[in-house]
Amino acid sequence: MLKIAVPNKGSLSESTIEMLREAGYRTRREPKELIVTDPDNEVEFFYLRPRDIAVYVGSGTVDAGITGRDLLLDAGVEAIELMTLGFGRSTFRYAAKPGLVASVADIEGKRVATSYPGLVRKDLADRGISADVVRLDGAVETAITLGVADVIADVVETGTTLRNQGLEVFGDPILHSEAVLIKGNRPGPEQAVDVLERRLMGVRTARTYVMLDYDCPRHLVDRATELTPGLESPTVSPLQDEEWVAVRAMVPRYGRNRVMDQLYDLGARAILVTDIAACRL
Ligand SMILES: Nc1ncnc2c1ncn2[C@@H]1O[C@H](COP(=O)(O)OP(=O)(O)OP(=O)(O)O)[C@@H](O)[C@H]1O
Ligand SMILES: O=P(O)(O)OC[C@H]1O[C@H](OP(=O)(O)OP(=O)(O)O)[C@H](O)[C@@H]1O
Ligand SMILES: [Mg+2]
User: How is its activity regulated (predicted)?
Assistant: First the structure.
């Protein structure tokens, strides 16, 4: 059976469970269920702390896992990022009280609090900066208020937590993170992991695209299909009225209304959008 590690709590947990469910896998019925066997798909899911997932995958104890890219890099293990999953997006950034540091070079000799010491030590080493890294479990923004550190390096999503502590980011983001599917780099059940990857890709695609149908005067079909090229090529079917054709194509969900407006202006009619429930491309 394929062993897959998934986050049991925190920011990535709910979205992961929802995505697995959409991909046709069994998910836990209540938060205290730590191992879920899905015999139909020959998969066993291990609900683990997001931070530990990369470690399990890196050691080969489980075949694949879902975690954040930042957590994967912090763990510094031998694991490969197979695909991004489209949720849990964040940046990882340095921050301090306004006026204390103008640039990342000014971190030299200062104390940096973080719950991602692996990531921060590597970033500082890459830049040739020597600083004292203080490892904390969470709520690192408070470390400055309490005088434990001069600078923090932490996950920033909306920036609300930083603002509430009177802190400001500086320098470019160390990293852009999101939830990712990872696997170890040892030989394993490649085919079963491929199935998981394809299923998750199917969910991602179904969420990113919608199906667009419309009727179009035959002489306008070239111009219309330029607006809706589809993935391979749009389906163009004859209609009873020979002056018209029906067109069907996948279009990005984002921007679909603009495409519908453009098609209408061009002369297309009966323009319909439908959600895609699942797909394999
Ligand atoms: N607003 C956010 N806050 C925290 N993590 C976020 C946020 N948005 C996305 N993430 C991502 O979620 C992952 C961290 O998850 P989580 O916060 O659950 O871990 P944790 O801090 O170790 O757990 P917990 O906070 O429950 O102790 C990282 O990959 C991070 O980039
Ligand atoms: O930019 P924001 O939208 O404010 O989000 C970022 C904050 O959220 C996370 O904290 P979390 O809730 O995971 O608590 P923790 O620090 O204890 O892990 C992260 O560590 C930041 O503190
Ligand atoms: Mg957290």
Answer: Feedback inhibited by histidine.
Q: Domain limits of the chain?
A: 2-87+178-188, 90-177, 209-275
Q: Is the pLDDT of residue 188 over 80?
A: no
pTM: 0.91
- Across the chain, mean pLDDT equals 96
Verify whether ligand 1 is closer than 6 Å to residue 159 (CB atom).
no
The pairing of strands 35-38 and 43-48 is antiparallel
Number of Cβ atoms within 10 Å of the Cβ of 40: 9
Centroid of ligand 1 to alpha carbon of 219 (angstroms): 53
Q: How far away, in angstroms, is 176 Cα from ligand 1 center?
A: 13
Return the residue whose CA atom lies nearest to atom 9 of ligand 1: 88
Q: Which atom of ligand 1 is nearest to the CA of 177?
A: 31
Interatomic CA distance for residues 73 and 48, integer angstroms: 17
Read off the amino acid at residue 228: T
Q: Which atom of ligand 1 is nearest to the CA of 12?
A: 12
Say yes or no: domain 2-87+178-188 is CATH 3.20.20.30: no
Q: Of 80, 42, 41, nearest to 64 (Cα)?
A: 80
Q: Name the CATH topology of 90-177.
A: D-Maltodextrin-Binding Protein; domain 2 (3.40.190)
